[in-house]
Design a protein that fits this description.
Layout lengths: L1 H53 L2 H6 L19 E5 L12 E3 L2 E3 L4 E3 L2 E4 L5 E3 L4 E9 L4 E7 L4 E8 L1 E2 L6 E2 L4 E4 L10 E8 L2 E3 L5 E2 L4 E2 L3 E5 L22 H8 L4 E3 L6 H8 L3 H8 L12 E3 L1
Antiparallel strand pairs: 1-17, 2-5, 3-4, 5-13, 6-12, 7-8, 7-11, 8-9, 9-13, 10-12, 13-14, 15-16, 18-19
Length: 304
């Protein structure tokens, strides 16, 4: 009788413990979807914070101030030796493909033209080239006329000059392709057109090195700015609010030259590309200031 009772007790205890275990597993299982949802919510929240932080991270590496009055306010800023500019997400500021005046020294005016002039008509819509934040909305009678300056997360600032009307205000955040003004003929202008500049920490860069207006596309996913590279069109002093400033002989000569651009594909070498372009390797290296042993990166832009 005693052994039967003991056996019954053991069986009962085992059944109880099994029930507790099963209940615990059911409880854990029932909480799992909640945990997954919480983790998903946390992940979304964290990603939003990261995205918000990273939106201006590249520009934050360069710019330490937000000046809404002076367009060219970086005379004391330290330019990096090189800086990789992300061109993805670019939108042409106008569908016009007609370049009426290129970047470079203008002998007739004895001054440097620090942007591209693109033919538009008064009232044509002008849009932001990249996502960004509006820094300047002003009128410059002797230069840009009505113009807008936008700072972008990739480090660039773009300038849109000779507008007939500005459609944004200082501190507005805009998306690539969003209207920011209307084409016009204000300021120092001899006909209706858009004056378009690209600058890095105030230093003018030839927009044609990054953007192909004829084909309405970028020259590559990235562009590497190099401080001491005159052929990039960026080795000139800043100049005043109207972009004036006389170029040095070396710079004016290089900026007047007409180049085509080639985007390096994965696995391509200088010898392969030179063969495709009908050039010698020495010539290709000379134009791009490379050595024969230089390793090329996919997406790198070469001039020829």
């Amino acid at each position: 009788m005693h052994s039967i009772s003991l056996k019954g007790f053991v069986v009962g205890a085992f059944a109880f413990l099994s029930g507790v275990s099963a209940f615990s597993q059911d409880l854990i299982a029932s909480q799992a979807p909640i945990d997954r949802r919480l983790k998903a919510v946390d992940s979304v929240a964290i990603q939003r914070i990261i995205d918000k932080t990273e939106t201006w991270s590249d520009a934050g590496e360069l710019y330490t101030s937000w000046n809404t009055q002076n367009t060219h306010c970086y005379s004391s800023a330290e330019l990096p030796d090189s800086f990789k500019i992300d061109l993805r997400g670019f939108c042409m500021p106008t569908p016009s493909r007609n370049i009426t005046s290129r970047y470079g020294y203008r002998a007739a005016f004895r001054r440097q033209h620090k942007g591209l002039d693109i033919k538009v008509y008064t009232g044509d819509t002008i849009v932001a080239a990249f996502d960004g934040k509006v820094r300047i909305v002003r009128y410059d009678r002797g230069g840009y006329g009505k113009y807008v300056v936008i700072r972008h997360p990739n480090g660039l600032e773009t300038i849109y000059g000779h507008l007939s009307k500005q459609l944004v205000a200082v501190d507005d955040e805009v998306k690539a392709g969003e209207p920011i003004g209307l084409g016009g003929n204000t300021g120092r202008s001899t006909g209706s057109h858009l004056h378009f500049e690209t600058r890095l920490l105030g230093r003018a860069i030839d927009p044609a090195l990054m953007f192909d207006f004829v084909n309405q596309d970028v020259t590559g996913d990235y562009f590497v700015f190099r401080k001491n590279e005159p052929s990039q069109g960026n080795a000139l002093a800043q100049g005043g609010a109207n972009g004036r400033g006389k170029a040095s002989t070396a710079s004016s000569g290089s900026s007047q030259r007409s180049f085509h651009y080639y985007k390096v594909k994965r696995g391509e070498s200088l010898y392969v590309i030179a063969g495709k372009l009908g050039l010698t390797v020495d010539k290709l290296c000379s134009i791009n200031r490379l050595r024969k042993k230089s390793v090329l990166r996919p997406g790198q832009i070469l001039r020829y």
